[in-house]
Design a protein that fits this description.
Length: 306
C-alpha cells in the first residue's frame, strides 16, 4: 500500500542568478513499512526533496506538483495543518543534530516539550516515558539531564532519533544521519535505525551507498535535480542500468575506487538533453539533444536513459 505519493514535484529557488530548479518533475512513492533510499552526489537536490515532504522549504522556494499523504496534498495545506502533520505523521531526523537541538535545554527538557505540548502527555507520566524512550535508542537514562554539548556526535544523533520516534510517526525522513560519524559509530546508528523502522516507513537521504544498501528495500538515484533510476536495492547494486548509477557503484572502495570523471553541473547551468551526458562514457550525439523521460522497465525498475 502506498503511504506517500509524489507527483510531478518541482521545487524552484529564487537566487541572484534567477530561478533555479532544485527538484525537477519528481515522481516517487513510499510504501507502507518500506525503507526507500535517495542517493546521489552532494548538491543534487536530495535534502530539498526531504524538506518538501515536511513543509520546511526555505522562504525563497516555490513548490508545484503534489505530495499526497492521507488523501491530502501537503503542498496545498496551510502551515497550521502542516504543524499537526509534522512530527506526528512525518518526522524528520536532520543531518546536523548540534544545530537542531537547543543548546540551553537539557535532553529531558527538550523531550518533555514534545510530550507535554505536542502530545499532551500528563506531567506525571513524562519522566517515565522519557526514560523508556532514551533506553530504546541506547542512551543511559542518567544522562537525560545533560546538555547537548556534553554528548558526542553519535549520541546526539541518538537523541535526534529519540525525538523523532517520540511521536510514533508512520514515516521517518532521515537526512544524512551518518554524516561525519566514524565507522564504528556509523554502523551502530545504522543498526538503531533498522530497529526503529521495523514498524514504520522511512525515506533515507544519503550519499553513502553502503548505508543505503544496508538499510533500504528500494533505492532512487538522483542526479542534477531529477530521478534517473529506481530499483530494488540488490538489483540496483548487482545490475545498475543508468551510467550514473554504475559510476557511483564503481567509485566504492569495494569496486576499486573508480571515480566518475568531471563534476555535476550547477543547477544554474544544466546541460541540454540528458543532464549526465557530459560525464557519460557511453554518451551519443542524441544524448545532448533529447532529454530522456523516466520510464518503467518492469519489476519496480524505472530508468531515465536513451
Amino acid at each position: 500500500m502506498v503511504l506517500l505519493d509524489i507527483h510531478q514535484l518541482c521545487v524552484r529557488l529564487a537566487t541572484r542568478a534567477g530561478m533555479v530548479e532544485a527538484n525537477s518533475n519528481i515522481n516517487l512513492s513510499i510504501h507502507q513499512d518500506e525503507r526507500l533510499g535517495l542517493i546521489g552526489e552532494t548538491g543534487c537536490g536530495k535534502s530539498i526533496l526531504g524538506h518538501a515532504l515536511v513543509g520546511l522549504l526555505p522562504e525563497n522556494a516555490v513548490a508545484t506538483g503534489k505530495i499526497i499523504y492521507g488523501g491530502r496534498n501537503l503542498l496545498a495545506q496551510p502551515e497550521a495543518a502542516l504543524q499537526k502533520i509534522r512530527g506526528r505523521d512525518i518526522a524528520m531526523i536532520f543531518q546536523d543534530p548540534r544545530s537542531s537541538l537547543n543548546p540551553v535545554l537539557t535532553v529531558y527538557e527538550q523531550l518533555m516539550e514534545i510530550y507535554r505540548y505536542r502530545l499532551s502527555v500528563p506531567r506525571n507520566q513524562i519522566r517515565a516515558k522519557t526514560i523508556r524512550l532514551l533506553e530504546r535508542v541506547g542512551i543511559d537514562a542518567q544522562r537525560m539531564d545533560d546538555y547537548p554539548h556534553q554528548f558526542s556526535g553519535g549520541m546526539l544523533q541518538r537523541v535526534m532519533i529519540a525525538m523523532a520516534i517520540a511521536f510514533q510517526p508512520p514515516l521517518l525522513v532521515a537526512d544524512e544521519i551518518t554524516k561525519g560519524l566514524d565507522r564504528p559509530v556509523k554502523w551502530k546508528i545504522v543498526d538503531l535505525i533498522r530497529d526503529v523502522t521495523a514498524d514504520r516507513s522511512m525515506l533515507l537521504i544519503t550519499h553513502d551507498l553502503t548505508v543505503a544498501r544496508a538499510l533500504c528495500d528500494r533505492i532512487a538515484v538522483m542526479y542534477a535535480g531529477e530521478i534517473v533510476e529506481i530499483n530494488r536495492t540488490e538489483s540496483l547494486f548487482n545490475t545498475p542500468a543508468h551510467p550514473y548509477t554504475r559510476g557511483l557503484i564503481s567509485a566504492l572502495p569495494a569496486s576499486g575506487l573508480h571515480p566518475i570523471a568531471g563534476q555535476a553541473p550547477g543547477l544554474t547551468g544544466l546541460p541540454h538533453g540528458c543532464r549526465f551526458h557530459p560525464r557519460c562514457e557511453i554518451s551519443e550525439h542524441i544524448c545532448s539533444r533529447r532529454h530522456p523521460q523516466l520510464r518503467p522497465l518492469g519489476n519496480d525498475h524505472y530508468l531515465r536513459c536513451s
